[in-house]
Amino acid sequence: MKIKYKITIGILSILIILGIVMNLSIASILKRDMESNVMNSLEEIMKSTRESIKYRLTIDTEIDKKKLLLQEAEYLSNYIVLNYESNIEIIGLNGEVYVSNIESKVDNIENIYLRAVDGEVVVNLKYTDDGLKGFITYLIFINRESLGVLHLEKSFDDIYKQYSSTITFIGLIVIIVFLFILTLSYLVASKITYPISLLINGIKEVGRGNYNTVISYSGNDEMSIVAREFNNMNNKIQLQIDTIKSEKEKVETLEKSRKQFFDNVTHEIKTPLTAIMGYAEIIKDNIISDEEFKKKSIERIYEESERLNLLVLDLIKISKGISTVDENKVEIAIDEVINQICDDMQIKASKYGIKIKRDITQGKIYGRINKIRELFINIVDNAIKHSSSSNIIYINTKLEESYYCIDIINYGEKIPDNIYNSIFEPFVKDNIYKDDESRGLGLYLCSEIIKDHNGKITISNGKEIIVNIKIPCLRNNLETIV
């Protein structure tokens, strides 16, 4: 439990005890005072009614006083009820009730009667649910002659309500003072423990690895010194961590660069080899006698061999720790590149009885020629692998707003959901297709090339698989901003 809560709970406990003791003490004093006033009032009523009864009974001196009391009982009752707002009961010495309008009886009334006959004035108080009643019982006598007993009942509800209101008001004041002191105690405790909370939170943040945490606490006390030293310690730790992270990032970047290159170069080597092997197979088997086509095949073999040579040189540079330099972007006649790739890939497609049909629109883009060639070779190669035998691959292009749009459409089995949902991530492949030697980098490399050219690539899945590519194009000889 936090220190401020301990302090607050301690003060709260003391306040509760003091509040209970204070309320009980005040209530006891007020109750005692109220009862004293009620008894005094009853005694005054007793004195006054005694004089009234004595006066009434001494008017006629001829009649026996006891008989006269019986005769005048009704009159005396009405007189007292009217003048003193009280109810009475007059009882003879023999226990006969002469007159009575008492609404409620007190306990042990017989004992009280006997005590009154002996000359004792008996006063009783009775609390009800919403009020207070007073009872006084005394002996009626004239010239020392006992005549009977008068039992009087009077309601003091107004005094009791005033007493209850006073208790409620005092209780409310105590609660208000209690809440004020409690709030003040909590604020003072929070003020005292605030620097400790700052230090605890700072230590927790450092434990989570956040070494930029600064404790802002000013003053000249001991806590300000602790806060200042904590900040100095934190700064030194942060400097050491930054140095370690910097060195670690350098090592990780170097290792990641090498790994990515070796993963990518494996896939890139296969791309030119596809064209080289296709043209070489035609020349070797003398399938086509057209000299012009043979010449073109030799040129393509040479171009792809050059690409392989560049890859090998890059590999040598990486092995020596030398970073590769990106190819410069140039203006590219994209329609010519696509037509050339379609011619090259038709050789591989023919082996599976697949035909490539194209509808190519002229257009120019600004990009890296070798990367663009790699992009479309990978996409068309995937279309061949994923197409059913004796089928057709459609390649359609068009200009749409500021983009050169290409659709590569093939028909075959639907791509499994587990592959499709992460198709542009590295090393994602399915070995059920014609070529199962891929390392799953083709579409990942394609998406990276598209990002490098500020383009977009999407794949629609199903029996008809559509790869849609959009690359910013050049219009009116204006270069696309990249």
Structure overview:
The protein is of the alpha+beta class and 482 residues long. Among the domains are: 3-171, Beta-Lactamase; 321-472, Histidine kinase-like ATPase, C-terminal domain (Heat Shock Protein 90), CATH 3.30.565. The protein is 58% helix and 18% strand. The protein contains ten helices and twelve strands. A hairpin with a 2-residue loop joins strand 9 (392-400) and strand 10. Helix 1 (3-57) packs across helix 2, helix 5 (222-285) packs across helix 7 and helix 8 (369-385) packs antiparallel against helix 10. It starts with a helix and ends in an 8-residue tail after the last strand.
Key words describing this protein structure:
482 residues; alpha+beta; Beta-Lactamase; Heat Shock Protein 90; seven-stranded mixed β-sheet; 18% strand; disordered C terminus
